[in-house]
Specification:
Layout lengths: L1 H16 L9 E3 L2 E3 L10 H14 L2 H14 L4 E7 L2 E5 L1 H11 L3 H14 L3 H17 L9 E2 L7 E3 L3 E19 L2 E2 L6 E11 L3 E11 L4 E10 L5 E6 L4 E3 L3 E19 L2 E19 L3 E11 L4 E10 L5 H13 L5 E3 L20 E6 L11 E9 L4 E6 L2 E2 L8 E9 L6 E11 L4 E10 L11 E9 L5 H17 L3 E3 L2 H7 L2 H9 L1 H7 L7 E10 L3 E10 L5 E9 L5 H18 L4 E8 L6 E4 L12 E8 L2 E3 L5 E3 L2 E13 L4 E8 L11 E4 L1
Parallel strand pairs: 6-11, 13-17, 26-27, 26-28
Antiparallel strand pairs: 1-2, 3-4, 5-7, 7-8, 7-9, 7-10, 10-11, 12-14, 14-15, 14-16, 16-17, 18-34, 19-20, 20-23, 21-22, 21-24, 24-25, 28-29, 29-30, 31-32, 31-38, 32-37, 33-36, 33-38, 34-35, 36-37
Helix pairs in contact: 2-3, 3-4, 4-5, 4-6, 5-6, 8-12, 10-11
Amino acid sequence: MNKRRVLFAFAVLLVAGGCVSDPSAVREKDGQQYGVTDGVFRGRWWSYYERGTSYLAGGFHEEAAADFEQALKGRSRDTWRARTYGLHFVEYFPARELGVCYLRLGRLDEAERQLQEALAMVDTERAHALLDEVKREKIRTGALKDDTAPALAEDMQPARIVAERELPVEVAVADDTGVAEVRVNEQKAFQRGSQTEIKVKETVELDEGTHEVTVTAVDLAGRETEQKTTVTVDLTGPTLGIYIPVEPTVTGDRTILLEGAAVDTNGVSRVAVDQRVVAESAGDPKLAFTAELPLAPGENTFVVASNDTAGNETRSALKVFQGDPESMEAKLWLRQQRQDRGGLVFASADEPRVLLQLAQEAAPAPDGEIRLKSPQSDKPYRHSRALMVSGEVVGQQPLKSISINGVPVEPLANAPKESFTRRLPLETEKEGRFQVAIRAEDAAGKVLEKSVDVEVRPVALNTVESRMPVAVLAFAGPGVDEGAAFALRAETEAAVTMKGRFRCLERAQLQQVLTEQQLAQALADPNQAIALGRLTNAQIFLTGELFPRDGKGLEVKMRVISTETSDIVSILDAFIADMSDPAQVKQAAAALSAQLEAMYPKLSGEVMAVRGAGAGAELLMNWTKEDGVRQGAYLLLVNETPAWVDETTGEVLAPPEYVPVGRARIESPGDTGTRAKTLDLQQEGATIEKGMPAVTM
């Protein structure tokens, strides 16, 4: 009887105290116990993982390694969400944490191999950071040689003049052991771990004037390579002066001699009259020009345009009346011109067009022809990332080759008629001209060529309302200081908002729909946040689970959750080696923001086809899976109002405006297009039609 009581009492103590069943497994350091589990040690894979994590926190690496090895025998793969029993789930990374143990024990080759295996299972920032630490230690001990600094695969462009405040900087860097960091004007580019080859694209904002842009690459050994270039931001067109004639002018001659000059500090590239170039230079600060212009009876209007080396343009209109200067007609005209001077006349650029549809397919030319279906030169192309080119080549002989901008179309059927569809990446997301050149050759050696100049004009809508609404809620974890969690959450909000892709709901906005108690729960408990986040008008909300690592470190697991379905859309992660370092906290927040932006890219596009009308209409958009468009994301359908144009000079006085008319939801991204469905119309009676511009929210 006494024996039973003793055994029962011992069992109660084990359960109540959360101790392991084998007290000899416990290790002590600085008054703290390690090698313990929350409850009875059951000898299952999750028990070994939990105890191993406890050992690792105390620096007992041999014991931790033994437990992680045992855990891997029971469950061999790392995962963010492993089911233990019932509805209980844990974050499970024994392969990765075993690599940590090998690293701390100095078993560097094993650590490197183990961490690479862990990365192949789940790509985490912590694994990348640890793998870099292994390589640095190998370099320090001489096991890995690194005698050269990183190499910039392509030299930066020489000093140049640009007409944009936002300067895209692209650079390719290579290093035999690994590029650890790339900075553009001390702005660190986002990357996950070191890479032997990396291409970086960053945007630097510059004011008007001359600036030095520096790219710095750092390898794992700390060796640096630096390149600099000078960029002048010029947003002002040349000064355009006309010496002769002094307008308004009346002359009886059939021609008139035009003389003038354009001046610009950064250099003038050309002067044109009615789009005919009359003078060119390589960038002289002053460019004189003369042109003999033919005159027709009555009023003649000539538009003189000058461009500087940055591409800025200045226009001037010149009016000349040809006729008898003493005639009543000439005098009335001259008086009218002098009365009207100084006034601005606005006109719409939206001229009516006549669209012709051919009932039958046109017969091919005797030697063959290239028929281009898309893109069309007479309408703007809205996509900002890629150009879809489709068409067909019809010949008299089997076709041997087809190329688009020099890139072969493969494979071919070796038939006289070949149809093609290809996606061409655009080098810039800004508007401009893009040439598509198609060349085909048949078996007899006959060559067919066709080119089209396409106007790429992405939807320039970046209002606060057009940005994707996001709520950043819980950032918390067991054993994590509340102040540190709050600081990370605040930095994440700032990073997510900074680039203008998202708008974060402020605490005051959240307070409008959540009680103080509910808000406190949502800001402290990820599970509560999931339940309460649906009460907000955010499309997604973010919750961060924090896990202490290696004493001073912190691993961040950020869940991206749909407010519509409460489903976890994705899991993002970051690793902070030292939580006390504000720079590392800021860097981790930037990494989370970069991952989120990659999930929900800002895309410009247009409607390719419509079925139905109003709310519930089915749409086919010109985005594809390759663009990164995501099911469940939202888009805005917009109308484009025409630009304000000076009727006389043709100068654009105010750019086009985009007015949202409706909202739609992405249903299914595909390989050739993306299906969407309209949700609501913001303008009563608005018509959704083919060609309508759109932009992702």
